Here is the input.
Amino acid sequence: MSELFIKISNPAILINPQTKQVKLIDFSIASLLPRETQTLVNPNVLEGTLAYISPEQTGRMNRGIDYRTDFYSLGVTFYELLTGELPFASNDPMELVHSHLAKILPLIHTINPHIPTAISKIVSKLMAKNAEDRYQSALGLKFDLEECLFHLRETGEIRDFEIASRDVCDRFIIPDKLYGRDKEVKTLLEAFERVSQGVTEMILVAGFSGIGKTAVVNEVHKPIVRQRGYFIKGKYDQFQRNIPFSAFVQAFRDLMGQLLTESDVQIQQWRNKILEAVGDNGQVIIEVIPELENIIGIQPPATELSGTAAQNRFNLLFQKFTQVFTSKEHPLVMFLDDLQWADSASLKLMQLLMADTKHLFIIGAYRDNEVSHGHPLLMTLSEIQKTQATINTITLAPLSNVQVNKLVADTLKCPEEVAWNISVLIYQKTAGNPFFTSQFIKTLYQDGLIQFDFGLGCWQCDISQVTMQAVTDDVVAFMSLQLRKLPSSTQEIIKLAAAV
Here is the structure.
Protein backbone atom coordinates (compact mmCIF):
# COMPACT_ATOMS: atom_id res chain seq x y z
CA MET A 1 0.00 0.00 0.00
CA SER A 2 3.01 2.31 0.21
CA GLU A 3 2.53 3.30 -3.43
CA LEU A 4 -1.23 3.80 -3.29
CA PHE A 5 -2.64 7.23 -3.93
CA ILE A 6 -6.30 8.06 -4.30
CA LYS A 7 -7.76 10.39 -6.88
CA ILE A 8 -10.83 11.30 -4.88
CA SER A 9 -13.92 10.82 -7.04
CA ASN A 10 -16.13 12.16 -4.28
CA PRO A 11 -14.44 12.81 -0.95
CA ALA A 12 -17.14 11.01 1.00
CA ILE A 13 -16.14 10.68 4.63
CA LEU A 14 -18.42 8.48 6.69
CA ILE A 15 -18.55 9.27 10.41
CA ASN A 16 -20.40 7.07 12.87
CA PRO A 17 -21.99 9.54 15.32
CA GLN A 18 -22.01 6.96 18.14
CA THR A 19 -18.49 5.51 17.85
CA LYS A 20 -16.90 8.51 16.07
CA GLN A 21 -15.29 6.01 13.70
CA VAL A 22 -14.26 7.57 10.40
CA LYS A 23 -14.25 5.70 7.09
CA LEU A 24 -13.19 6.77 3.61
CA ILE A 25 -15.16 5.29 0.73
CA ASP A 26 -14.87 4.93 -3.06
CA PHE A 27 -11.49 3.65 -4.19
CA SER A 28 -12.83 3.04 -7.71
CA ILE A 29 -10.20 5.21 -9.39
CA ALA A 30 -7.32 4.50 -7.04
CA SER A 31 -3.98 3.72 -8.68
CA LEU A 32 -0.93 1.73 -7.67
CA LEU A 33 1.29 3.61 -10.11
CA PRO A 34 3.84 5.96 -8.47
CA ARG A 35 3.09 8.63 -11.09
CA GLU A 36 0.54 9.12 -13.86
CA THR A 37 -0.01 11.62 -16.66
CA GLN A 38 -3.50 13.04 -17.09
CA THR A 39 -4.54 13.67 -20.67
CA LEU A 40 -6.78 16.56 -21.69
CA VAL A 41 -10.42 15.44 -21.62
CA ASN A 42 -13.87 16.97 -21.34
CA PRO A 43 -14.34 18.32 -17.79
CA ASN A 44 -17.73 16.58 -17.71
CA VAL A 45 -16.02 13.17 -17.95
CA LEU A 46 -12.92 13.79 -15.82
CA GLU A 47 -12.37 11.12 -13.19
CA GLY A 48 -13.35 12.61 -9.87
CA THR A 49 -15.64 15.39 -8.71
CA LEU A 50 -14.61 18.68 -10.31
CA ALA A 51 -14.94 20.66 -7.10
CA TYR A 52 -12.21 18.54 -5.47
CA ILE A 53 -9.73 17.65 -8.23
CA SER A 54 -6.16 18.94 -8.19
CA PRO A 55 -4.79 21.26 -10.90
CA GLU A 56 -2.63 18.50 -12.40
CA GLN A 57 -5.66 16.21 -12.58
CA THR A 58 -7.29 18.54 -15.11
CA GLY A 59 -4.73 17.55 -17.76
CA ARG A 60 -3.96 21.21 -18.40
CA MET A 61 -0.62 21.43 -16.62
CA ASN A 62 2.89 20.35 -17.52
CA ARG A 63 2.87 18.00 -14.53
CA GLY A 64 2.37 14.33 -13.71
CA ILE A 65 0.00 13.06 -11.03
CA ASP A 66 1.23 11.32 -7.89
CA TYR A 67 0.13 10.84 -4.28
CA ARG A 68 0.30 14.60 -3.63
CA THR A 69 -2.86 15.10 -5.69
CA ASP A 70 -4.73 13.68 -2.69
CA PHE A 71 -3.33 16.40 -0.44
CA TYR A 72 -4.98 19.02 -2.65
CA SER A 73 -8.34 17.22 -2.50
CA LEU A 74 -7.98 16.89 1.26
CA GLY A 75 -7.28 20.62 1.47
CA VAL A 76 -10.53 21.31 -0.40
CA THR A 77 -12.35 19.04 2.06
CA PHE A 78 -10.79 20.86 5.05
CA TYR A 79 -11.71 24.21 3.51
CA GLU A 80 -15.32 23.08 3.14
CA LEU A 81 -15.46 21.74 6.69
CA LEU A 82 -14.06 24.96 8.15
CA THR A 83 -15.96 27.53 6.08
CA GLY A 84 -19.14 25.69 5.19
CA GLU A 85 -18.61 26.21 1.48
CA LEU A 86 -16.41 24.98 -1.33
CA PRO A 87 -13.39 27.10 -2.29
CA PHE A 88 -14.56 27.21 -5.91
CA ALA A 89 -18.26 26.95 -6.69
CA SER A 90 -19.63 27.06 -10.22
CA ASN A 91 -22.05 25.19 -12.44
CA ASP A 92 -19.69 25.70 -15.38
CA PRO A 93 -17.17 22.82 -15.60
CA MET A 94 -14.63 24.93 -17.51
CA GLU A 95 -14.89 27.68 -14.89
CA LEU A 96 -14.15 25.15 -12.14
CA VAL A 97 -11.14 23.83 -14.04
CA HIS A 98 -9.86 27.39 -14.56
CA SER A 99 -10.30 28.14 -10.83
CA HIS A 100 -8.27 25.11 -9.77
CA LEU A 101 -5.52 26.14 -12.19
CA ALA A 102 -5.37 29.87 -11.65
CA LYS A 103 -7.34 31.33 -8.75
CA ILE A 104 -5.38 31.86 -5.55
CA LEU A 105 -7.48 31.60 -2.40
CA PRO A 106 -6.97 33.98 0.54
CA LEU A 107 -5.90 32.45 3.85
CA ILE A 108 -9.11 31.29 5.48
CA HIS A 109 -8.32 33.00 8.78
CA THR A 110 -8.63 36.29 6.90
CA ILE A 111 -12.17 35.24 5.95
CA ASN A 112 -13.08 33.88 9.38
CA PRO A 113 -10.90 35.31 12.19
CA HIS A 114 -12.05 32.50 14.51
CA ILE A 115 -10.04 29.96 12.52
CA PRO A 116 -6.50 29.61 13.95
CA THR A 117 -3.70 30.88 11.74
CA ALA A 118 -1.87 27.54 11.92
CA ILE A 119 -4.92 25.66 10.61
CA SER A 120 -5.30 28.26 7.88
CA LYS A 121 -1.69 27.80 6.76
CA ILE A 122 -2.05 24.00 6.73
CA VAL A 123 -5.08 24.23 4.42
CA SER A 124 -3.28 26.67 2.11
CA LYS A 125 -0.25 24.40 1.89
CA LEU A 126 -2.45 21.43 1.08
CA MET A 127 -4.10 23.44 -1.71
CA ALA A 128 -0.93 24.79 -3.33
CA LYS A 129 -1.23 24.80 -7.14
CA ASN A 130 2.11 23.02 -7.63
CA ALA A 131 2.59 19.63 -5.99
CA GLU A 132 6.15 20.60 -4.93
CA ASP A 133 4.68 23.35 -2.71
CA ARG A 134 2.26 21.03 -0.88
CA TYR A 135 3.05 18.65 1.94
CA GLN A 136 5.46 16.00 0.70
CA SER A 137 4.46 13.34 3.20
CA ALA A 138 1.41 12.26 5.16
CA LEU A 139 3.64 12.06 8.25
CA GLY A 140 4.50 15.75 7.95
CA LEU A 141 0.82 16.65 7.77
CA LYS A 142 -0.02 14.29 10.64
CA PHE A 143 2.65 15.91 12.83
CA ASP A 144 1.21 19.39 12.24
CA LEU A 145 -2.36 18.28 12.94
CA GLU A 146 -1.26 16.53 16.14
CA GLU A 147 0.60 19.70 17.14
CA CYS A 148 -2.63 21.64 16.73
CA LEU A 149 -4.51 19.06 18.81
CA PHE A 150 -1.84 19.12 21.53
CA HIS A 151 -2.04 22.90 21.94
CA LEU A 152 -5.84 22.81 21.90
CA ARG A 153 -5.92 20.25 24.71
CA GLU A 154 -3.19 21.91 26.76
CA THR A 155 -4.18 25.59 26.44
CA GLY A 156 -7.65 25.59 24.93
CA GLU A 157 -6.39 27.33 21.78
CA ILE A 158 -4.21 26.60 18.76
CA ARG A 159 -1.26 28.96 18.61
CA ASP A 160 0.60 29.78 15.44
CA PHE A 161 3.72 27.73 14.69
CA GLU A 162 6.00 26.87 11.79
CA ILE A 163 4.22 24.21 9.78
CA ALA A 164 5.86 21.42 7.75
CA SER A 165 8.93 21.34 10.02
CA ARG A 166 8.76 17.52 10.04
CA ASP A 167 7.64 17.15 6.44
CA VAL A 168 10.34 14.75 5.23
CA CYS A 169 9.48 12.55 2.26
CA ASP A 170 10.98 9.05 1.95
CA ARG A 171 9.67 8.68 -1.62
CA PHE A 172 12.22 9.25 -4.35
CA ILE A 173 10.79 11.94 -6.60
CA ILE A 174 12.68 14.03 -9.14
CA PRO A 175 10.78 17.34 -9.23
CA ASP A 176 8.77 18.24 -12.33
CA LYS A 177 9.72 21.89 -11.96
CA LEU A 178 11.95 23.62 -14.49
CA TYR A 179 15.46 24.73 -13.49
CA GLY A 180 17.51 27.52 -14.96
CA ARG A 181 14.99 28.53 -17.62
CA ASP A 182 13.23 31.53 -16.02
CA LYS A 183 14.58 33.94 -18.63
CA GLU A 184 13.46 31.76 -21.54
CA VAL A 185 9.97 31.22 -20.09
CA LYS A 186 9.66 34.97 -19.50
CA THR A 187 10.59 35.61 -23.15
CA LEU A 188 7.86 33.24 -24.34
CA LEU A 189 5.22 34.78 -22.07
CA GLU A 190 6.15 38.29 -23.17
CA ALA A 191 5.71 37.21 -26.78
CA PHE A 192 2.31 35.78 -25.90
CA GLU A 193 1.30 39.14 -24.44
CA ARG A 194 2.25 40.83 -27.71
CA VAL A 195 0.29 38.25 -29.70
CA SER A 196 -2.71 38.87 -27.43
CA GLN A 197 -2.65 42.48 -28.62
CA GLY A 198 -3.08 41.42 -32.25
CA VAL A 199 0.29 40.60 -33.77
CA THR A 200 1.56 37.31 -35.14
CA GLU A 201 4.92 36.09 -33.92
CA MET A 202 7.18 33.08 -34.10
CA ILE A 203 9.77 32.03 -31.58
CA LEU A 204 12.15 29.16 -32.26
CA VAL A 205 13.62 27.20 -29.36
CA ALA A 206 16.88 25.60 -30.45
CA GLY A 207 19.27 23.22 -28.77
CA PHE A 208 20.69 19.71 -28.56
CA SER A 209 18.61 16.63 -27.77
CA GLY A 210 17.74 16.46 -24.08
CA ILE A 211 18.49 20.13 -23.47
CA GLY A 212 14.88 20.81 -22.43
CA LYS A 213 13.29 22.51 -25.45
CA THR A 214 9.94 20.78 -25.07
CA ALA A 215 9.92 21.27 -21.30
CA VAL A 216 10.51 25.03 -21.64
CA VAL A 217 7.64 25.42 -24.08
CA ASN A 218 5.29 23.23 -22.04
CA GLU A 219 5.99 25.43 -19.03
CA VAL A 220 4.00 28.28 -20.63
CA HIS A 221 0.96 26.04 -21.11
CA LYS A 222 -0.62 26.84 -17.74
CA PRO A 223 -0.15 30.65 -17.87
CA ILE A 224 -1.61 30.70 -21.39
CA VAL A 225 -4.65 28.65 -20.33
CA ARG A 226 -5.03 30.99 -17.35
CA GLN A 227 -5.43 33.87 -19.79
CA ARG A 228 -7.96 31.87 -21.84
CA GLY A 229 -5.60 31.27 -24.72
CA TYR A 230 -5.63 28.01 -26.67
CA PHE A 231 -2.40 26.00 -26.50
CA ILE A 232 -2.06 23.21 -29.05
CA LYS A 233 0.91 21.13 -30.07
CA GLY A 234 2.15 18.65 -32.62
CA LYS A 235 5.41 16.81 -33.12
CA TYR A 236 7.23 15.74 -36.26
CA ASP A 237 8.59 12.20 -36.44
CA GLN A 238 11.90 11.25 -37.99
CA PHE A 239 10.33 8.09 -39.44
CA GLN A 240 7.11 9.70 -40.74
CA ARG A 241 8.52 12.53 -42.80
CA ASN A 242 6.53 11.33 -45.78
CA ILE A 243 3.25 12.24 -44.04
CA PRO A 244 2.41 15.87 -44.89
CA PHE A 245 1.19 18.28 -42.20
CA SER A 246 1.57 15.63 -39.46
CA ALA A 247 2.33 18.07 -36.63
CA PHE A 248 -0.37 20.51 -37.77
CA VAL A 249 -2.88 17.66 -37.85
CA GLN A 250 -1.89 16.56 -34.32
CA ALA A 251 -2.16 20.14 -33.07
CA PHE A 252 -5.61 20.78 -34.51
CA ARG A 253 -6.93 17.40 -33.43
CA ASP A 254 -5.80 18.54 -29.99
CA LEU A 255 -7.73 21.80 -30.47
CA MET A 256 -10.91 19.98 -31.54
CA GLY A 257 -10.65 17.98 -28.32
CA GLN A 258 -10.44 21.20 -26.33
CA LEU A 259 -13.43 22.72 -28.12
CA LEU A 260 -15.50 19.62 -27.43
CA THR A 261 -14.95 20.21 -23.69
CA GLU A 262 -16.91 23.45 -23.92
CA SER A 263 -20.65 23.98 -23.51
CA ASP A 264 -23.21 23.08 -26.18
CA VAL A 265 -23.83 26.77 -26.78
CA GLN A 266 -20.13 27.45 -27.34
CA ILE A 267 -19.78 24.44 -29.64
CA GLN A 268 -22.68 25.71 -31.72
CA GLN A 269 -20.97 29.09 -31.99
CA TRP A 270 -17.77 27.39 -33.17
CA ARG A 271 -19.78 25.38 -35.69
CA ASN A 272 -21.21 28.54 -37.22
CA LYS A 273 -17.83 30.27 -37.38
CA ILE A 274 -16.08 27.29 -38.95
CA LEU A 275 -18.76 26.74 -41.58
CA GLU A 276 -18.69 30.42 -42.44
CA ALA A 277 -14.92 30.18 -42.97
CA VAL A 278 -14.71 26.94 -44.98
CA GLY A 279 -18.05 27.08 -46.78
CA ASP A 280 -18.86 23.89 -48.70
CA ASN A 281 -15.29 22.59 -48.35
CA GLY A 282 -15.53 21.36 -44.77
CA GLN A 283 -14.95 17.78 -45.90
CA VAL A 284 -11.45 18.77 -47.09
CA ILE A 285 -10.48 19.58 -43.50
CA ILE A 286 -12.41 16.64 -42.02
CA GLU A 287 -10.35 14.24 -44.12
CA VAL A 288 -7.23 15.21 -42.14
CA ILE A 289 -8.92 16.20 -38.86
CA PRO A 290 -11.78 13.68 -38.38
CA GLU A 291 -12.74 15.16 -34.98
CA LEU A 292 -13.97 18.29 -36.77
CA GLU A 293 -17.03 16.33 -37.91
CA ASN A 294 -18.16 16.14 -34.26
CA ILE A 295 -18.43 19.93 -34.32
CA ILE A 296 -19.70 20.84 -37.80
CA GLY A 297 -21.49 17.60 -38.66
CA ILE A 298 -21.35 15.52 -41.82
CA GLN A 299 -20.30 17.63 -44.81
CA PRO A 300 -20.97 17.16 -48.55
CA PRO A 301 -18.12 15.74 -50.67
CA ALA A 302 -15.73 18.40 -51.92
CA THR A 303 -14.98 18.96 -55.59
CA GLU A 304 -12.21 16.63 -56.73
CA LEU A 305 -8.93 18.42 -57.45
CA SER A 306 -5.45 17.08 -57.98
CA GLY A 307 -1.85 18.16 -57.84
CA THR A 308 -1.05 21.81 -57.25
CA ALA A 309 -4.70 22.86 -57.33
CA ALA A 310 -5.58 20.52 -54.45
CA GLN A 311 -2.54 21.70 -52.47
CA ASN A 312 -3.39 25.37 -52.96
CA ARG A 313 -7.02 24.80 -51.97
CA PHE A 314 -5.98 22.98 -48.83
CA ASN A 315 -3.50 25.68 -47.80
CA LEU A 316 -6.01 28.51 -48.28
CA LEU A 317 -8.76 26.57 -46.49
CA PHE A 318 -6.47 25.72 -43.61
CA GLN A 319 -5.46 29.36 -43.29
CA LYS A 320 -9.13 30.41 -43.05
CA PHE A 321 -9.79 27.52 -40.67
CA THR A 322 -6.91 28.62 -38.40
CA GLN A 323 -8.10 32.24 -38.40
CA VAL A 324 -11.38 31.10 -36.82
CA PHE A 325 -9.48 30.31 -33.62
CA THR A 326 -7.21 33.35 -33.45
CA SER A 327 -8.92 36.22 -31.66
CA LYS A 328 -8.25 38.76 -28.94
CA GLU A 329 -10.49 36.77 -26.59
CA HIS A 330 -8.70 33.49 -27.36
CA PRO A 331 -5.20 33.89 -28.86
CA LEU A 332 -3.88 30.68 -30.40
CA VAL A 333 -0.50 29.25 -29.44
CA MET A 334 0.73 26.47 -31.72
CA PHE A 335 3.78 24.48 -30.66
CA LEU A 336 5.47 22.52 -33.46
CA ASP A 337 8.16 20.24 -32.05
CA ASP A 338 11.13 18.71 -33.88
CA LEU A 339 10.90 21.07 -36.83
CA GLN A 340 14.16 19.67 -38.20
CA TRP A 341 12.02 16.79 -39.52
CA ALA A 342 9.16 18.90 -40.92
CA ASP A 343 7.99 18.05 -44.45
CA SER A 344 7.98 20.64 -47.25
CA ALA A 345 4.17 20.95 -47.25
CA SER A 346 4.21 21.84 -43.54
CA LEU A 347 6.92 24.45 -44.05
CA LYS A 348 4.88 26.03 -46.85
CA LEU A 349 1.76 26.12 -44.67
CA MET A 350 3.72 27.64 -41.79
CA GLN A 351 4.94 30.37 -44.14
CA LEU A 352 1.37 31.07 -45.25
CA LEU A 353 0.01 31.26 -41.68
CA MET A 354 2.71 33.70 -40.64
CA ALA A 355 1.80 36.01 -43.53
CA ASP A 356 -1.76 37.00 -42.68
CA THR A 357 -3.04 35.78 -39.32
CA LYS A 358 -3.54 37.90 -36.20
CA HIS A 359 -3.41 36.66 -32.60
CA LEU A 360 -1.30 33.65 -33.65
CA PHE A 361 1.83 32.60 -31.78
CA ILE A 362 3.84 29.81 -33.40
CA ILE A 363 6.54 28.23 -31.24
CA GLY A 364 8.90 25.88 -33.02
CA ALA A 365 11.54 23.66 -31.46
CA TYR A 366 14.38 22.05 -33.35
CA ARG A 367 17.80 20.47 -32.85
CA ASP A 368 20.18 23.08 -34.16
CA ASN A 369 23.00 20.54 -34.43
CA GLU A 370 20.94 18.70 -37.08
CA VAL A 371 20.09 21.80 -39.13
CA SER A 372 22.91 23.01 -41.35
CA HIS A 373 23.11 25.77 -43.95
CA GLY A 374 20.71 25.03 -46.80
CA HIS A 375 18.32 23.01 -44.64
CA PRO A 376 14.68 23.47 -45.79
CA LEU A 377 13.71 24.83 -42.37
CA LEU A 378 16.30 27.61 -42.48
CA MET A 379 15.36 28.46 -46.04
CA THR A 380 11.68 28.74 -45.07
CA LEU A 381 12.50 30.95 -42.09
CA SER A 382 14.53 33.18 -44.37
CA GLU A 383 11.54 33.57 -46.71
CA ILE A 384 9.24 34.38 -43.77
CA GLN A 385 11.64 37.06 -42.52
CA LYS A 386 11.54 38.75 -45.92
CA THR A 387 7.87 39.58 -45.22
CA GLN A 388 8.91 41.54 -42.09
CA ALA A 389 7.33 38.90 -39.86
CA THR A 390 8.64 38.71 -36.31
CA ILE A 391 10.85 35.67 -35.71
CA ASN A 392 13.10 35.30 -32.68
CA THR A 393 15.27 32.41 -31.55
CA ILE A 394 16.01 31.13 -28.07
CA THR A 395 19.07 28.87 -27.95
CA LEU A 396 19.12 26.76 -24.79
CA ALA A 397 22.44 26.22 -23.07
CA PRO A 398 23.19 23.36 -20.66
CA LEU A 399 22.35 23.88 -17.01
CA SER A 400 25.06 25.43 -14.87
CA ASN A 401 26.63 23.64 -11.93
CA VAL A 402 24.56 25.84 -9.60
CA GLN A 403 21.30 24.93 -11.38
CA VAL A 404 22.14 21.21 -11.29
CA ASN A 405 22.83 21.64 -7.59
CA LYS A 406 19.33 23.07 -7.05
CA LEU A 407 17.81 20.07 -8.82
CA VAL A 408 19.87 17.61 -6.78
CA ALA A 409 19.11 19.40 -3.50
CA ASP A 410 15.36 19.40 -4.22
CA THR A 411 15.47 15.72 -5.16
CA LEU A 412 17.41 14.70 -2.06
CA LYS A 413 15.41 17.09 0.16
CA CYS A 414 18.52 18.68 1.62
CA PRO A 415 20.18 22.13 1.74
CA GLU A 416 22.05 23.13 -1.41
CA GLU A 417 25.39 23.27 0.39
CA VAL A 418 24.93 19.66 1.54
CA ALA A 419 24.19 18.54 -2.03
CA TRP A 420 27.13 20.40 -3.57
CA ASN A 421 29.72 17.58 -3.68
CA ILE A 422 27.40 15.06 -5.30
CA SER A 423 26.06 17.77 -7.63
CA VAL A 424 29.57 18.51 -8.90
CA LEU A 425 30.03 14.84 -9.75
CA ILE A 426 26.66 14.63 -11.49
CA TYR A 427 27.42 17.80 -13.45
CA GLN A 428 30.75 16.36 -14.58
CA LYS A 429 29.02 13.18 -15.73
CA THR A 430 26.13 14.86 -17.59
CA ALA A 431 27.61 18.22 -18.69
CA GLY A 432 24.46 19.96 -17.47
CA ASN A 433 22.12 18.29 -19.99
CA PRO A 434 18.74 18.32 -18.15
CA PHE A 435 17.54 15.00 -19.54
CA PHE A 436 20.81 13.21 -18.80
CA THR A 437 20.94 14.79 -15.37
CA SER A 438 17.48 13.56 -14.35
CA GLN A 439 18.04 10.13 -15.85
CA PHE A 440 21.46 9.78 -14.24
CA ILE A 441 20.04 10.67 -10.80
CA LYS A 442 17.24 8.16 -11.36
CA THR A 443 19.81 5.52 -12.31
CA LEU A 444 21.78 6.19 -9.12
CA TYR A 445 18.64 5.57 -7.09
CA GLN A 446 17.72 2.42 -9.03
CA ASP A 447 21.26 1.08 -8.55
CA GLY A 448 21.00 1.62 -4.79
CA LEU A 449 23.57 4.44 -4.63
CA ILE A 450 20.95 6.86 -3.28
CA GLN A 451 19.03 5.58 -0.26
CA PHE A 452 16.79 7.06 2.39
CA ASP A 453 18.25 6.99 5.90
CA PHE A 454 15.29 6.63 8.27
CA GLY A 455 17.51 7.25 11.27
CA LEU A 456 18.69 10.62 9.99
CA GLY A 457 15.47 11.37 8.14
CA CYS A 458 17.22 12.28 4.88
CA TRP A 459 18.65 10.84 1.66
CA GLN A 460 22.22 9.58 1.57
CA CYS A 461 24.44 9.07 -1.48
CA ASP A 462 27.56 6.95 -1.94
CA ILE A 463 29.81 9.48 -3.68
CA SER A 464 32.70 7.07 -4.17
CA GLN A 465 30.45 4.71 -6.15
CA VAL A 466 28.95 7.59 -8.15
CA THR A 467 32.45 8.53 -9.30
CA MET A 468 32.77 5.10 -10.92
CA GLN A 469 29.49 5.38 -12.85
CA ALA A 470 29.84 5.74 -16.61
CA VAL A 471 27.49 7.82 -18.74
CA THR A 472 27.42 8.44 -22.48
CA ASP A 473 26.72 11.83 -24.05
CA ASP A 474 24.47 10.20 -26.68
CA VAL A 475 20.77 10.03 -25.78
CA VAL A 476 20.10 6.89 -27.86
CA ALA A 477 23.06 5.03 -26.36
CA PHE A 478 22.05 6.12 -22.85
CA MET A 479 18.45 4.94 -23.24
CA SER A 480 19.66 1.71 -24.86
CA LEU A 481 21.79 1.08 -21.78
CA GLN A 482 18.79 1.63 -19.51
CA LEU A 483 16.64 -0.73 -21.58
CA ARG A 484 19.25 -3.48 -21.29
CA LYS A 485 18.89 -3.28 -17.50
CA LEU A 486 15.24 -4.31 -17.73
CA PRO A 487 14.20 -7.97 -17.29
CA SER A 488 14.42 -9.94 -20.54
CA SER A 489 10.65 -10.53 -20.56
CA THR A 490 10.05 -6.78 -20.34
CA GLN A 491 12.54 -6.15 -23.14
CA GLU A 492 10.67 -8.62 -25.36
CA ILE A 493 7.35 -6.82 -24.72
CA ILE A 494 8.94 -3.48 -25.58
CA LYS A 495 10.32 -4.94 -28.82
CA LEU A 496 6.87 -6.17 -29.79
CA ALA A 497 5.25 -2.85 -28.87
CA ALA A 498 7.81 -0.95 -30.96
CA ALA A 499 6.88 -3.02 -34.00
CA VAL A 500 3.14 -2.33 -33.72
Summary: The first helix runs from residue 68 to 83.
